[in-house]
Amino acid sequence: MAARPGRSVLSLQGVALADRQFSAHTARLDLELPHGEVALVQVEDEHDAALLVDLCLGLADPGAGEVRFLGIDWATHTPRERFHRRRRIGAVMQTDVWPSHMTVLESVLVARAYHFNQPRAEVIADATELARLFGLPGLPAGRRDATPMRALVRAACVRGFLGSPDLIVVQDQVLDQSSELAVPMAQAISAACDRGATVLWITASLATQAAQFVHTNQAFRLGDHGLIRVRRSR
């Protein structure tokens, strides 16, 4: 995977999760993710996983320390500036990504159309190519409630990788358990990293079928002492 020199895409320096109580120690999270690298982080508690995602996306501030995206501390930005910087981040998750007033297709395309003013035909072509990679004949055109979970999971993958984002955050419990998506996810991650993107996969277990197919540069487990580097068994 080709990595570009220079600053990290994502950096956590002495970060404390604002409302997490670690036993015995005040833990600090330190993480450096350069361009073109993949990191797996095992977080067993769903609440902690959600907190970590929010920190990385600039949706919440840490109790201590700094979270930097492309070299700049999220805390130095206004809410509007954070909103615009998030256009450079892709997220693969089910929570809060399917607005009830939009079809699944519109929800997948809206970020590219709004932030980058890319012609709709080009966005649809790119999204369709990704949809086929993830096992869909095309993008679901209906609303969330009328779309099968299998299709929603794959559409979430399309949404996360669409548009060559600098950072892709994966946090989807359904995806962790899907052996069908293991190979296409590995292919999508490899292609993204070849373009210089960085991938952070937050998973309930490093041993999930999907995660086992992904080549990683770093692997961690979140525990009472913060992020502990671990060696993955292959």
TrEMBL record:
<protein>
    <recommendedName>
        <fullName>ABC transporter ATP-binding protein</fullName>
    </recommendedName>
</protein>
<dbReference type="InterPro" id="IPR027417">
    <property type="entry name" value="P-loop_NTPase"/>
</dbReference>
